[in-house]
UniProtKB/TrEMBL annotation:
Domain Response regulatory as annotated: residue spans: 3-120
Name listed for the protein in its UniProt record: Two-component system response regulator YesN
Keyword Phosphoprotein: yes
Organism of provenance: Paenibacillus silagei
Annotated positions of the 4-aspartylphosphate modification: 55
Segment forming the signal sequence: none
Keyword vocabulary terms for this entry: DNA-binding, Phosphoprotein, Transcription, Transcription regulation
Pfam families cross-referenced by the UniProt entry: GGDEF_2, HTH_18, Response_reg
Amino acid sequence: MYKLLIADDEALEREGLELMIRHLIPDKFEFLHAGNGRKAIQLAEEHRPDMIFMDIKMPGIHGLEAVRQIREKLPAAQIVMITAHDYFAYAKEGLLLGVRDYLLKPARREEVAEVLRKLMAVIGEERRRRNEQLELQEKLAHLLPLAENELTLMLMLEHVQDLEPEQLAGLLELHFSKGYAMVLSFPRHGESGWETFRQSKREIYEAVKQFAKTGLGCLAGPLAGHQLALFIPLPPGRTGYSQRVSSLDWGERLRTYTRERFSLPLGVGIGSIREGWDGLSRSYREAVRVCADHQHSFGVHHYDDMIQSSGQTAVSLDEEKKLLTALLQRSKQEAAQRFSLLYDSFEQGGDHPLSAVRGEVTGLLLFLARGVHSTAGAELLASLNAAEDPRALRLSAESWLERLIDGLEEEQEHHRSHVHQRALLYISQKYKEDISMEQTAEYVNLSPHYFSKLFRQHEGETFIDYVTRLRMNEAKRLISEDQLNLKEICYEVGYKDPNYFSRVFKKAAGMTPSEFRQQQEKPGPC
């Protein structure tokens, strides 16, 4: 159904137009009547018609002014001007106001029917587009929480790839250049209020997450055990010190909110402000470590304060990246040395609890695993969590470092083998043509020098020797079949000069092609 407002100061005109339309297109319209411009504006605002037939000349507010005011409130309404005055000035002003069409009194049936069909087509298309837009918005509303979970998990597990976080952040309309992580730690098993939390954790999670997102404009991760991670952007123009004060204040607000609404204590760990996605992952690890160091103290603790009070020096991201570089270069000795130095800094002479050291080394190894594209994150976590004392944790961590290096070497060897097999397949298809080592190296995306070394390592002979051997074996087979003459065989196996072919054949077989054929033709002993 369509709502059609007919505005004309002559009742007979309005009623006649309605009867005509009911006859032309029955059961499609709900009609509204206005005898002047003011009434037309009121009805339009109240009933929001799809179409309006507006007379230009009416008492009081004339038609064009009524159209102007209606268009401000209902820009999608399809308006047709009806007038007995065929003046260009009216038409020009109406077009500027967005009038769809004109009808001259007395309007003919065919003209009215044509105008209505056009308007119905326009409205139908707009409704279709609007439905598609709403369906897309509905799908997006379901996808956005998944995108947020995916991005936060990537940051928490340090599985950040180059393009993926930017794509997810774009979908979420987020712009992170600097930021920090905040970890909310609810009481564990055995602590006061844990049973309440376990039974109502979904309600608690949603309420606390919404409270934090409303105030901080942050990313909120999924509830991981008893912890909720928040990733908070640094507002433009905010200094690091003022943001640190603000983050501590927000930590207290979250504690107060959780205590007053759910009667639950809450521990808050805050990481330092860092740049980029790697920096946010690092800040998350810092926040987790703060929570581990203060797991029995439900207060607000900042990583920077912890470092300053303990006299520690925070491990720089540069040191971690140097370790990753050594790992990627398969430099076992350098990687082991750098890893040992970082591990010593985590332990700080054995003054820190096992849980804090475990958090640091787990974060470091996840960072390395992501850097070498390892998929062993879940196994790594389980292995480190199973370590019950400092020595077992260190041995497990060192073992994982070796596994990451060994995995790189295995991957490299597998890649080399795969490349070599592709090269052999290419040669088997092309050796009868004018094939070269450079062409083959280009085919497998290697430099000629590296390809030459790789080929000799796998085959025990040079590229030229290998191709020559294939050609000579094929030449012997064709000579034995005795279907082609020697010149034809020369061309068939990839040579253009019969004399050169003969020399190469003699060098490989110890006799000329003619002698080889004669030998094949001799009858065997009776």
